[in-house]
Amino acid sequence: MTINVSELLAKVPTGLLIGDSWVEASDGGTFDVENPATGETIATLASATSEDALAALDAACAVQAEWARMPARERSNILRRGFELVAERAEEFATLMTLEMGKPLAEARGEVTYGNEFLRWFSEEAVRLYGRYGTTPEGNLRMLTALKPVGPCLLITPWNFPLAMATRKVAPAIAAGCVMVLKPARLTPLTSQYFAQTMLDAGLPAGVLNVVSGASASAISNPIMEDDRLRKVSFTGSTPVGQQLLKKAADKVLRTSMELGGNAPFIVFEDADLDLAIEGAMGAKMRNIGEACTAANRFLVHESVADEFGRRFAARLEEQVLGNGLDEGVTVGPLVEEKARDSVASLVDAAVAEGATVLTGGKAGTGAGYFYEPTVLTGVSTDAAILNEEIFGPVAPIVTFQTEEEALRLANSTEYGLASYVFTQDTSRIFRVSDGLEFGLVGVNSGVISNAAAPFGGVKQSGMGREGGLEGIEEYTSVQYIGIRDPYAG
Ligand code: NAP
Q1: Atom nearest to 467 CA in ligand 1
Q2: Which pLDDT band, with edges at 50, 70 and 90, does 334 fall under?
Q3: What is the mean pLDDT of residues 444-452?
């Protein structure tokens, strides 16, 4: 299907979704959205003020009680209709994501499938929120537990997966009976705006989901987080911003889910199937142009296979086609903004200045757009900044190791603990190494393991809470225990 870009952009609401309508900002302010492949402005949206943010919270709180009482089957049906509508509009969503974020269209289509699965999964989970029944050990009480919606939520999403990061929060919140205010990333709000309209089209009652895009994140989030009616904040983004939000959340003792940054090790043992390892490396490194919290950030490769791994990985990267993600055949798009491209370039330049060797790539692209060449570095010193910071770009630094203990020590030597990858054919090593890895996610012989049915989340400074799986809906519920005097109690 060929999408007409101007017709598509004309369909995306440009206002703030407050209650039942898309409205202008109270001060008339706007901000621009840019295409990172060309540097051109593609849309101008209303920019929410603090007043607008509170109006969105008002609209949400006004329907919380009624929404929580709606039968779970009806909430489930709305999610299911949302899933079907997103599937019908898949090509539109994919095109929007490529336009505002830069990922190649084929990857954007993949994100629509992945992101939409959260609507389907939580439409199924909505009707399976079970409590418990039992008697106390002393026999004096009957115990009932009920899972209640946690209450009004603030959902803050990043720019790297514009659809999936929204559906991963919105779908379980709907399933659990919570109302919400969604604040999308400034760089990529269009997908969320269109997604919210799609949920209204699917029958979501006005006020349940409100959307406040804007140029100033803190002007939007601060007043909402300072309001006594808010009960939860779910944030996906960088660790420093997550830390600030946690401090703010403490003042009101808010429930929090924090999906923060990562520094994933990708370990290739001497007994690995190298074909699988190269395939896995392509997925773990190149998915989303390396702009993923799960992106392999450090390649730890046994010294006996490091040369072959580096050579074959570099050869695969040289086959990639850099360009505008909307163009046929392009496999690597631009980075999301100029600042992002410059930060990748400075990490590579610093590693090279400290003695690393460039096997392939190592340069920014020329012309309009924020391109960086897929790059492999070897001989990287273990204290290089590139191994200790999120690269968020298509750059693979390789470090060698000699023993399993050394690999584990290097892998865990980070304050982050989100994704990790292990390539080995030895079953006992799989369990041993998984036990030793201080990470919330372990991919074994696979470079991409995210799935709506699986609990996604980190440990250490990568955050707390889980999205997806059975665990994903619990983040939006609180347990109420009801103790009833036992009829046989003395
Ligand atoms: P970011 O700068 O932390 O921004 C994330 C979101 O927070 C955006 O909506 C942003 O709004 C907002 N924000 C920024 N400053 C804020 C403040 N002071 N108060 C309230 N909200 C604020 O992160 P990003 O650059 O968009 O995303 C990349 C980061 O996200 C990486 O660290 C990546 O690892 C992480 N990430 C984690 C996961 C996970 O599941 N663990 C998934 C994806 C991404 P503006 O856009 O308006 O600045």
Answers
A1: 40
A2: very high
A3: 98
**Ligand 1 in contact with 216 (CB < 6 A)?**
no
Q: Whose CA is nearest to atom 42 of ligand 1?
A: 293
Residue 244 alpha carbon, nearest atom of ligand 1: 18
| Partners of 89 in the β-ladder | none
How many Cβ atoms are within 10 Å of 373's Cβ, its own excluded?
21
Query: Which run of H or of E encompasses 422?
Result: strand 419-423
**Alpha helices, DSSP H only, in 354-398?**
385-388
Contact 163, 173 (CB under 8 A): no
Write down all domains in the chain, each with its CATH number in brackets: 5-260+463-480 (3.40.605.10), 264-451 (3.40.309.10)
pLDDT at 203: 98
| Overall average pLDDT of the 456-476 stretch | 98
Q: Whose CA is nearest to atom 16 of ligand 1?
A: 217
Q: At what angle do helices 217-225 and 239-252 cross, to 10 degrees?
A: 30
Q: How confident is the model over 94-123, as pLDDT tens digits?
A: 999 999 999 999 999 999 999 999 999 999
Does the C-beta of 419 come closer than 6 Å to ligand 1? no
Give the whole-angstrom CA distance, residue 284 versus residue 295: 5
Choosing from 92, 117, 259, 291, the catalytic residue is: 259
Confidence (pLDDT) at 48: 98
Average pLDDT over residues 138-149: 97
Instruction: Using the mean position of ligand 1's atoms as its centre, give its distance from the Cα of residue 217 in Å.
Output: 10
**How far, in Å, from the CA of 336 to the mean position of ligand 1?**
13
Token pair 């090279």 is found at 352
Q: Whose CA is nearest to atom 23 of ligand 1?
A: 237
Ligand 1 contacts CB of residue 310 (under 6 A): no
What is each CA distance from 437 to 107, 277, 446, in whole angstroms?
A: 29, 18, 16
Phi, psi (rounded to 5 degrees) for 456: -105, 130
Beta strands of 274-346 (E only): which ranges? 296-302
Q: Buried (b) or exposed (e) across 51-69, using 16+ Cβ within 10 A?
A: ebbbbbbbbbbebbeebee
Is 66 labeled as catalytic in the residue annotation? no
Dihedral over Cα of 364, 367, 370, 373: its sign: negative
393 lines ligand 1 (CB under 6 A): no
Residue nearest to atom 35 of ligand 1 (CA): 237
Mean pLDDT of 214-226: 98
